[in-house]
């Protein structure tokens, strides 16, 4: 949001909203309702439905499972938890490393 509370034009609107509303985050992937999942950058209606449908069978435990559900992890990782923990790639980036660094 800019100084007049308008969306910044050079930033994805969903990402801008998420950054302006940090009190809504992080969202727990394994328990959040559909409407809450939709607030997360990188999660659209299709991937939110896949997440909700998969839950009765098993809980998500890692980033690869979320990617297979259609979640864009590079955008979502700063706004989610998986079983109460931030994704590994988000923790690595916070320390100044790329997710692929060894």
From TrEMBL:
According to its UniProt entry, the protein's GO biological process terms are: DNA repair
Under the heading Pfam families, the entry gives: HHH_3 (PF12836)
* Source organism superkingdom: Bacteria
Residue spans crossing the bilayer = none
Alphabetically, the GO molecular function entries are: DNA binding
Write down the SUPFAM superfamilies for this protein, in alphabetical order.
RuvA domain 2-like (SSF47781)
InterPro entries for this protein: Endo/Exo/Phosphatase_dom_1, Hlx-hairpin-Hlx_DNA-bd_motif, RuvA_2-like
PANTHER family, per this entry?
ENDONUCLEASE/EXONUCLEASE/PHOSPHATASE FAMILY DOMAIN-CONTAINING PROTEIN 1, TYPE II SECRETION SYSTEM PROTEIN K
Q: What name appears for this protein in its UniProt entry?
A: Helix-hairpin-helix DNA-binding motif class 1 domain-containing protein
Organism of derivation: Candidatus Hakubella thermalkaliphila
State the organism's lineage.
Answer: Bacteria, Bacillati, Actinomycetota, Actinomycetota incertae sedis, Candidatus Hakubellales
């Amino acid at each position: 949001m800019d100084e007049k509370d308008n969306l910044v034009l050079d930033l994805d609107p969903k990402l801008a909203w998420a950054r302006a509303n940090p009190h809504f985050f992080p969202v727990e992937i394994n328990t959040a309702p559909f409407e809450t999942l939709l607030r997360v950058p990188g999660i659209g209606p299709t991937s939110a439905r896949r997440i909700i449908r998969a839950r009765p069978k098993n809980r998500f435990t890692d980033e690869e499972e979320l990617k297979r559900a259609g979640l864009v992890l590079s955008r979502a990782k700063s706004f989610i938890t998986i079983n109460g923990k931030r994704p590994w790639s988000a923790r690595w980036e916070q320390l100044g490393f790329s997710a692929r660094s060894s």
